[in-house]
Amino acid sequence: MKNILLLCLFIVVSNAFVNAQELKSPDGNLTLTFQLNKEGVPTYSLNYKKKEVIKESKLGFVLKSDIMLNQGFQIAATKFQSENSTWKPVLGEQKEIQNQYNELKADLVQEKSKRKVSIYFRLFNDGLGFRYEFPVQDNLRHFVIQEETTEFNLTGDHKLFWIPGDYDTNEYSYTTSKISEMQSLVYNATHVPLAAQATIKNLATQTPLMMKTNEGLYINIHEAALKNYPAMCLNVDDKTYSMSSHLVPDAVGNKGYIQTGSFTPWRTIVVSDDARKILTSKMILNLNEPCDFEDTSWIKPVKYIGVWWEYFTGGGSTWAYSDNQDVVIGKTDFSQLKPNKTHGANTKHVKEYIDFAATNGFDAVLVEGWNEGWEDNTAFKKERIYSFTKAYPDFDVKDLSDYAAKKNVKIIMHHETTSSTSEYERQLNDALNFMVDNKYNAVKTGYVGPIIPRGEHHDGQQMVNHYTYVAKEAAKHKIMVDSHEAVRPTGLHRTYPNWFAQESARGTEFESMEGIHPDHTTILPFTRLMGGPMDYTPGIFQGDLSVYGSKKNKLSTTLVKQLALYVTMYSPLQMAADLPENYLRFNDAFQFIKDVALDWDETYILEAEPGDYITIARKTKGKQEWFVGGITDENSRTATIDFSFLPAGKSYTAIIYEDGKTADYKTNPQSYNIRKITVNSKTKLKQKLASSGGVAISVK
């Protein structure tokens, strides 16, 4: 009888243990609870310093057709392990990154179907990552995902920094609101002119999603290591404050085509009670696979100028060589067309840019509009739009390649696909070989407009695979990739460090179109940049486009804020985007752009509040020099810059680029002052920032 009682007690304790697993972060601040509910549904919850972050939330999938892979499970096994190591990124915000976490792996099996799923939870000091594994098994091999049913049940009506859920673009302006206010704001948020849109019909938002609770917790939801899987948006229930995964479908409505023996991307939740720690988190990078390139010495940071902004100013420069709208790639003899005399990518003009780059110490010149096809760059209705190996008659590839080499400047290739990606893949090998033959080592790719194959989306599984395919093929040719209009990044620049920058958000070009809000760049580091570096293309000094004639747009920042963005918006690829003549007009301010580094030993987040302000200091890789950037939204403020990041006992000269006393982004954006002071590790500087203004400091 005694043995039977002991056996019963053992069974009860064992079942309680199996159905409720707890995992703590290395510092003990975060606690994950994983369990199965009464229906065998896997659930998780997350606490930070004993405050609830995510309430009990369900996990799982529905497979096509209506196969429920989210209930009726038993726990077959659990495994705990820990990791504490460091690694060095090829390019980055710091020279060394700590990868420390505690992991729980739960192997689940459905009692009736015997189908298996494993869930990995990794708890870092800065947040939680979890993903699903579909193990190789006898009765499940290939399947189609109908929906992923991952939930993120929030604790209240949080403040959100959000853009609408969309399958094709992330170039929306950010809206700041409570969850309960989203429905009343979503119409205006989505009804804006963009090149491609496929908004989600129910209330939804994109990731990375930044939130702040009434209790002062900062929460960021995104994903890591997005490969062979569709991107995740979030359905929003504005009554219960719950969110759930919404995967981007393909042309026939399916979400993903999966073979067992594979993993999903990681779902990520970064949490802190200090906004600065959201920006210092490297969890998303840590959840990506290490780079396996044997040689990465060819992957370098790039500071560049380009034949680019002149196309947006309204001054008359064009991508197209002629005005003939009836060109056919492979048939039209472009040498027989009448030139329009406004084509920007001509040999003489590009040489002027090469000269300017060489004189001012820039690495490269981007040239858009060099190749055949820009006359009729019609999205979606035409498949073969461009040649990626044939230049216009007035662009001498060999001459320019040789000229640039003599000046120690690279030319950045431009491959705008206008989203005819099937045609781009057909030409890709020839295009990359053409680049190698002509000494190009970096390419800017573009995906403007709706996707071909028709019905596919920018953020669906097929296009996710396309972007990684391009990055891998480029790496075989030792070519670096900067992708525009691509799916938002998820830390894959760790795995493929040659994919060193992306746009994938509303960038500077919109200053010439519908505009950018003053708070935009105070939100982006908390949202879009959580996944990876952005080619934001700052550095516009002449912000009033009416001086060029046809455009009436005005920049949303002061001139000094444009300087500060080189520090606050991390990227190893940075453009001085304005016209060269504007840098000559403000040559003393231009000096900061020439000086600022692109690759860093350390990064220090001095001040931060999403949507309001950011102040960041960074130490140049391998040098005793530092750069500071501080920005604010439409509200002027006084930044406190604490120089305690400097080595103790030494003094340094700081050159401060500051807003002038009368500076204001609307009325006097070009007012600035430059001064020198001596600083040391005990210096605390009170610095006034104008409305949508900034401060930029170089310390040597």
From TrEMBL:
Subunit structure: Monomer.
Ribosomal protein among keywords: no
Cofactors that this protein relies on: Ca(2+)
Domain Glycosyl-hydrolase 97 N-terminal: start-end pairs: 23-290
Naturally occurring in which organism (per UniProt): Flavobacterium hibernum
Residues covered by the Glycosyl-hydrolase 97 C-terminal oligomerisation domain: 599-699
Pfam families: GH97_C (PF14509), GH97_N (PF14508), Glyco_hydro_97 (PF10566)
Name this protein carries in UniProt: Alpha-glucosidase
Signal peptide: 1-20
Record-linked PANTHER family: GLUCAN 1,4-ALPHA-GLUCOSIDASE SUSB, GLUCAN 1,4-ALPHA-GLUCOSIDASE SUSB-RELATED
GO terms, molecular function: carbohydrate binding
Residue ranges occupied by any Glycosyl-hydrolase 97 catalytic domain in the UniProt entry: 316-505
Swiss-Prot/TrEMBL keywords: Calcium, Signal
